[in-house]
Amino acid sequence: xxxxxxxxxxxxxxxxxxxxxxxxxxxxxxxxxxxxxxxxxxxxxxxxxxxxxxxxxxxxxxxxxxxxxxxxxxxxxxxxxxxxxxxxxxxxxxxxxxxxxxxxxxxxxxxxxxxxxxxxxxxxxxxxxxxxxxxxxxxxxxxxxxxxxxxxxxxxxxxxxxxxxxxxxxxxxxxxxxxxx
Length: 181
Prior knowledge:
This protein is of the alpha/beta class. The protein contains five helices and nine strands, in the order αβββββββαβαβαα. The chain has helices spanning 6-32, 92-109, 126-134, 144-153, 165-176, and strands spanning 36-38, 40-45, 48-53, 55-57, 63-65, 68-71, 77-86, 115-122, 137-143. The strands form three sheets. Strands 1-6-7-8-9 form a five-stranded mixed β-sheet, sandwiched between helices. A two-stranded antiparallel ribbon has the order 2-3. Helix 1 crosses helix 5 (165-176).
């Protein structure tokens, strides 16, 4: 696999790893309470039925790719979930706005939804957090410093500046060589 931006690649890998771990835990919790945790939907296409990302519509037919949803035994959505990792605060306003817009629009359509939750990792500004809280999104944080500490325990230096491509490349290769444990 050819990688152009090693910093971006490791960021995406960390985000995917976080989402996978969260999904595993949420499936356990859903089972405990007789619910379902959904992360994808089924769509009918010309070539047959395919599993796709979880798209939920608002009252106007706009579709939003939601990371996950708890649904009851009747498949009514109860809790919306998002997990987002960002390294640089300059990106968090767009992601926070998207979460606010998507969750608010979907909640207006599905009156069974009781909560929206966002698990945020990395560097999130106070203003973005305030915006999400004002949109009734419950927030849980994984601080950037904790991610750096955990990676350092397995020999990966994750503190680097935005332009330090050599450090990012080194971190990417070391991260790729980690085992699933």
